[in-house]
Amino acid sequence: MAPLSNNVMGFTPPDGGWGWMVVLGAFISMGFSYAFSKAITVFFKEIQDHFGASYSEIAWISSILLAAMYAGGPVSSILVNRYGSRPVVMFGGLLSGAGMIISTFSSSIMQLYIFIGVIAGFGFSLNLQPSVIVVGKYFLKRRPIANGLAMAGSPVVLSTLAPLNQFLFDKFGWRGSFFILGALLLNCCVAGALFRPLGPMTASEKKKKNPSQDLAEKGTDETLLSANKLQPSYGTKMEENTEETCMEKFNKVLDLTLFKHRGFMIYLVGNVVMFFAFYAPIVFLTPYAKHLGVDEYSSAFLLSILAIVDMFARPGTGLIANTKWVRPRIQYFFSFSIAFNGFCHLMCPLATDYFGLVVYSVFFGLAFGMVCALLFETLMDLVGVKRFSSAVGLVTIVECVPLLLGPPIGGAIVDAFGDYKYMYFECGAIMVAAGLFLFVMNYYNYRMLEKEEKERQTKEIEMKENAGSKKDEMSPNEDKIQNGSESAKPDTEKAWKEN
Predict the structure, then answer these.
(1) DSSP 404-470
(2) What is the distance between the alpha carbons of residues 346 and 426, in angstroms, rounded to a whole number?
(3) In angstroms, rounded to a whole number, what is the distance separating the alpha carbons of residues 125 and 74?
(4) What would the mean pLDDT of 259-278 be, rounded to a whole number?
(5) CB 90 within 8 A of CB 187
């Protein structure tokens, strides 16, 4: 469960230097990716009135956007493994911006599902995954801090976009606002340009490498074949080897063996349960305030309050997670954060006025920031940096299902009861259950890892003892062989001289 060592990654992370510029790029890219689905909820009430949609129908916009953002995870991981983070993020920024600009010409809510939900959402997936992966490559010792700073982009962008969206709506309407927001999303292309490639061999190492060494490495197989006069076989074994090679190549792109990883499966199940209730409270926060009679700007400002608290909670959580007391047991800290998040939702219906909603937004921002800051750090702690790219892709494709269904289910509850408090009760109960599940299962996982480590050490000791006893048993025979060879040596020399 400890961080992966440098030699396994194949290179030494700089833990600073240009890495801080990479964190800045990830800050911008991840900020837009995560904050956008929350910030556009400011327009939901007006879009709902414009198209005559229900609460459940309007919630599908954020839901499809989040689902597309997470469902594109495997594709994003494959592209990162093939082309690197820089071109993928730049293309993602272009795609998300184009989706928002095209959505300004929508004549039905179904078209908003396609342009904002599918096209822009898939563009955000190309922004999100590479940003998370590249930070993990640039940092090791300071990785929790770097992840916390990068993840802080979401609340910073959200605190800016929420009041900005209300201002844009008053000036240009929701169509003109979407056009301007699409232009802002093109800044993700600039952020992607900061992601300088970092790999096992730097440019200076390539220059120092002897060119004859490359020729020797390339010609190794041919030399062995010609020297030993080996002929390749074309039977069943050759076909089996080809199949194995294809599977190995696929696992390099997307490692499916992670589904046999105990810690990964615990993380996956707990997160699937959690994501059914993770985003719905944010999606309905502004409509809930308007439902209680709060004016538009004050309702939108609740998202800014949440984001401001979240802004400080993420790097603060990263600092706490990087301490020697928390980092070895960071999974427990993650479980607590989820349960605390659920407790805030359970308390939300007690807020019946604007002051109560402000208090809820403060605690919700703290809890939400804690979960987001630890979301990818705990996964990297479980699987290591080398398998992290595949792990993110597999996790996000599975999590897209609860993300797709969560907000519409919350909207359906609001439509059925005509009140938001039952939706918050449902979300709170799910989050608390997910936190308790992860706490218990991570305790079990830690115990099993300690047991397996003790068994491994015991086997190593037994193997050393057996090797030592065999050496003691073989020593008399070795002496006889050595004495025999020494006695036969003069005869051998004599025969060689006679010849």
Answers:
(1) HHHHHHHHHHHHHHS-SHHHHHHHHHHHHHHHHHHHHHHHHHHHHHHHHHHHHHHHHHHHHHHHHHH
(2) 8
(3) 9
(4) 92
(5) no
Tokens coding 169? 């709506």
Determine contact, residues 41/158, Cβ cutoff 8 Å: no
Structure tokens at 265: 């499966």
CB 90 within 8 A of CB 33: no
**Residue holding tokens 């003069």?**
490
The residue type of 35 is: A
pTM (predicted TM-score)? 0.65
Report domain extents, the chain.
Answer: 17-199+258-452
Contacts of 439 (CB under 8 A, 6+ apart): 332, 335, 336, 339
The amino acid present at 467, given as its one-letter code, is A
Q: Under a CB-based contact definition with an 8 Å cutoff, are residues 426 and 413 in contact?
A: yes
Say how many residues make up the chain: 499
Tokens in use for 368?
């939400």
User: How many angstroms from the chain centroid is the CA of residue 229?
Assistant: 49
Band the pLDDT of 250: cuts 50, 70, 90.
low
Q: Is 358 exposed, middle or buried (0-12, 13-18, 19+ CB in 10 A)?
A: middle
- What is the C-alpha separation between 227 and 340, in angstroms, rounded? 68
Tokens of 7: 């030699």
Half-sphere exposure of 434 (CA within 13 A, CB side): 26
Burial of 209 (0-12, 13-18, 19+ CB in 10 A): exposed
pLDDT in tens, 102-137: 988 888 889 889 998 899 989 998 888 788 788 878
Residues 302 and 361: beta-carbon distance below 8 Å:
yes
For residues 231 and 23, give the distance between their C-alpha atoms in angstroms, rounded to a whole number.
52
Tokens describing residue 172: 């240009």
Is residue 302 a contact partner of residue 285, using CB atoms and an 8 Å limit? yes
What superfamily does domain 17-199+258-452 belong to in CATH?
MFS general substrate transporter like domains (1.20.1250.20)
Cβ(285)–Cβ(41) below 8 Å: yes
Q: What are the φ/ψ torsions at residue 104 (nearest 5 degrees)? A: -65, -20
Contact yes or no for 56/415 (Cβ under 8 A): yes
The tokens describing 404, both together, are 């797709």
Rounded CA-CA distance 315/309 in Å is 11
Contact 365, 33 (CB under 8 A): no
Does an H or E element contain 304, and which? Answer: helix 296-321
**pLDDT, tens digit (0-9, with 9 covering 90-100), for 195-206:** 888 755 444 444
> Helix (H, G, I), strand (E, B), or coil: what is residue 194?
coil
Please say whether the beta carbons of 321 and 370 come within 8 A.
Answer: no
Q: How far apart are CA 428 and CA 203, in angstroms?
A: 52
Whether residue 391 contacts residue 257, with contact meaning beta carbons closer than 8 Å, is answered with: no
Determine whether 497 is exposed, middle or buried from the number of CB atoms within 10 Å of its CB (0-12, 13-18, 19+).
exposed
